[in-house]
Each structure stands twice: as C-alpha cells, then as structure tokens.
Amino acid sequence: MPANLTPQYHEADKEYKQAKTYSEKIEALKKMLAIMPKHKGTERLQGDLKTKISKLNKISQKKSVKKESDSLSHIDKEGAGQVILIGKPNVGKSHIISGLTNANSPVTEYPFATRKPIVGMMKFEDIKIQLIDTPSITKTFTERYLFPLIREADMVILIVDLAQEDVLEQVEEITEILKSELISLKNERAEGLLPKKCLLIGNKNDFSEALPQLNVLKELYGNDFTSIFSISALKENWGDLKRKVFHTLEVIRVYTKQPGKPFEKGEPFVMKKGSNVHEVAIAVHKDFTNLKFARLWDEGNYSGQRVERNHILKDKDILELHM
Q: Which of 52, 81, 158, 275 is the most exposed place for a label (fewest CB within 10 A)?
C-alpha cells in the first residue's frame, strides 16, 4: 500500500536533513510523524520515525548531562585561595560552609542533599577565601566532576564526624578513592594519602568520645595531612579554623603606600609565601618592571628602610615603590 506522503511531510523531511542540532532534528521528526497519513502503508515509516526520535532523545540527554558535568568541573578562583570541602554523607560540611561564608548550603538529616558545588567566601581579617561545599563521597557513588575540582583547588579540607564510630573508615574510604582517582589521572605517585595540602577536620568535638577519636586520627595520620584538629558544632573555635586555612594556603598579604604620604590601609595584595619586592611590584602595575628600589615597613626590624628588588617579604609588610 503506497504511503501517499504529503508535500508538507516532504518539507518537514527537508527540515530534518538540514537540522544542525539534536533538538531541531527531534522537532522535525515529530512534525513528520504528526502530519504523515496514518494507515497500513505508513506503519513501518511511523516505527522508524519513533525509533529515531527515541535515539536522538537519549543522545541529547547524555550530551546535556556531560555538558553540565563539564561546567561543574571548573570553578573560577576568587579571593586569596580556593578550598574544597569533602567528606562522607552527614559529617557537617554544609553546616560548616554555611557558618563560615555567605553560602546557603542545605543542612539536612538525610544524605546527598548537596548535589552540585556550592561556593561561598570566608572572611579572614581583611581578605576573603573561597570555600566550596561538594557532594558526598562514597564507594558506591561519587560525582565525576568532583575530581577535576579537587585537582585544581589550592587545598582540601576532609571533614569527619567525631560523633560517629566509624571515623577511621571515613578517612580510609575517602582517601583511597581520591588517591586512586587523582593519581591515575595525573599519572604520578603521591607522597602521602592525598597529593596536595589537606586539613583533616574532626567535627563535633563536644561529643563525649571526640578526644579519643581525635587522638587516634593524629596517631595514625599525623604524617599524611598538613594538620589534624577538631572543631565544635557550636562554632566555638571556628576562628582557629579560619586561621589554620589561611596559614595552610601559604600566602602573605602585602600593603602599599604612596611615596611621601602617610600609610592608608587598603586591600592587600595576596602573594605566595616567599614572594619578593619585584614580584609584588609587577602585581601592583606592569610599569613597575623598571622598579629601582622600595622602602619597607614591617612588624619587626624595618621602618622605612630601603630594600632591593629581591628582598623576600612577610605577611603584612608595607611597601613604598620607587621607579
């Protein structure tokens, strides 16, 4: 039996063949299916169109998921450093980042409430540090975009719950997953459990068995983490956490003043620890490549003395740059 396809159908077929995106192809196929005559002669053609629509829908969804994953695997760095918070379900990551920053990370009794990275800025004295809450890590499921995020971050905070009996298992499970994944991707060997600066934070140190749990963590993992310490769920020593994050990032704050004028404290230039006068000058303005010398004020030995371009600076130094 002949199909007797209409001119409108052939026009839609032409649209399908010229379509460049999956959504355009799907719309053209749906149009063809809607306007074609429905009789025994078109049954096979109807089936073919439905199959094509189904396949294109699946491909389109996969592309959409991959595109979203790719977009989540990189977050532009802001502030003095980028810090990733990781942990198993319900260890308190969301509570911590909500308490330290302006981010609104959902705090729930059920696991996997956080499905996408949540970014917040933590204020430490006169600078801000970027914190990122992430989905939970488990043996059964870990978001794939999480690994590129961890590789790019300046440091990691692994959070465990001292009120849970399986504290050691929490550390072992996560470090094994990350060590395997990150090292295989970078094709290199890690010296410790994790291949970058990492704090191990025991949450809920007000729990009755928290201190013994913390002491065991320090004994077993003292050489594998940059630092191991505990915090209270009630935010009693969160200032110590901020300070520890700042020092672990290994950055310094350098202030500048105009020659011959009193120092007016503004936003500091955040530099890597070990930076010298010339590197700060370049950060201030590219024209300072021709810097002759600088005068330095610090909290110790300098009070306007001349220093050369290669002088190594410390946190809170004040520079007066001379061309």
A: 52
